[in-house]
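If your schedule permits, I should be very grateful for your opinion on a structural question. Thank you for your consideration; the sequence and its tokens are set out here:

===
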Amino acid sequence: MKVNKIYLPILICATLALGVVLGKYLKASENDSLIAKNSSKNKLNKLIDFIDNEYVDDVNTDSIVNVTVDNILGQLDPHSVYVPPSEQTQVAENMKGNFVGIGVNFYMYKDSLAIIKPVENGPSARAGIKAGDRILFADKTKLYGRQLSSDSLFSSLKGKQGSEVELTIYRKSLGKKIKVKIKIKRDVIPLKSVDASLLLDYSTGYIKINRFAETTFAEFKSGLQKLQKIGAKSLIIDLRDNGGGYMEEAIEIADEFLKDKQLIVFTKDKKGKVAKTFATKKGDFEAGTVFVLINENSASASEILAGAIQDNDRGTIVGRRSFGKGLVQREMDFDDGSAVRLTVARYYTPTGRSIQKPYSKGNESYFKESETRFLNGELYEKDSIKVVDSLKFRTPKGRIVYGGGGIVPDVFVPIATEHGNENTVYLMQSGVVGNFVFEQLDSNRNAFTGLIFKQFEVKMDQTDLYFNAFQKFLDKNNLNIKLSKNKEIVKRYLKAEFARQLYGETYYYKVILVDDAMIKAVLKKNIP
């Protein structure tokens, strides 16, 4: 990849960031401070120039600048970060909610690009590409037997909207190579942030949000309206493992539940300027019962939504204490495609609490804090959650809520009903399961041909075939994990993944939520 000489704008930004860190230590006059800042800027610029022009060996000064920026931002807070060009494109697509490509989910299986499932109504599906097909060539570019990186594969399949690519595929079910007769036109492929919206019973709707991207509110609104039309009177919003994203999307969703002029969130910048955001009259679900599911990986925008619901006494928060991120970032782009995300404000829930957890011990300690929750027992017992009495706040109805480190749920649900199950659950939620299921389907896809979903469920419930095969799969891959004590959990996740690859994402949740502890807690109907 060509490297552009962009060190000057990066250094300017980096120097400004350095000024933020050092400013409180400067006790000179305003003019002296300005001279000092300019002196620091000049020093950094001159140093890079000296290295670029005089150093005995050739040095990529751009990489030096990147390290400098990382080190400077490392002195701020854990969420002020530099994003290099190689990562920024993917991050931008993820947050935009779409990209341009051919529309396939794939898996590198035995050094071949194997199709797990074409995106429904996408270009590949319309052209006749099927699950299990191997893509051998994209135009004249060979995609198999080369150990290509993900970036190389994506660059071959992505492109400008309307551009064409001719795929040469191997269809295993026919045992022969086929050249797609009609060239596939690349098109906009949605990256959904709402995984599922479905009814759990005759009146309880469920919506799973995996992140807050540009399209999240529109996806959520569509799902909510669909559920209301088929009878939803109460709603479960699942924010588990949702690391956040655009706070504006979370605010719009909160507005659907809150009455006009109720406070949703407010921010405060370094100058003390406060910006408050209130609900409007447009909410479509201001009367129904609301539950929000959170866990230790629910962060940022997820916590804004949960905090707005909790602090306005609008609904019930179910699960475990959230991550604890109460900082707001602004993204600043550079000409080479990289960006800096700089923390520019703190946000506060309607009662006035900051849920930002401490980060004075450094980034490593900060991000590992969630791991300590295993050790102190708070993932198993609500009484083990440490709260600070000095950060106690009251909702309009007098309920006590706490600041200082995440949203504490109203109804606590432990990570597993029995200690030890959590390791199995983490395994079953990993990519290992998806790979195993694909290989099983690839070896005998005909075993499921023509089955409607109910028939599929009966078939999976009545056999241990795939449970036993999965244990052998783990052993073969040197994963020394014995599954016999957690057989029912393993079978449920295997069944759910088969459902996902055969029928789609919604069916994964139809299976997995049946025995979900948090869902069960809500459906007991005894939550205050």
Remarks:
- The chain is about 40% helix and 20% strand.
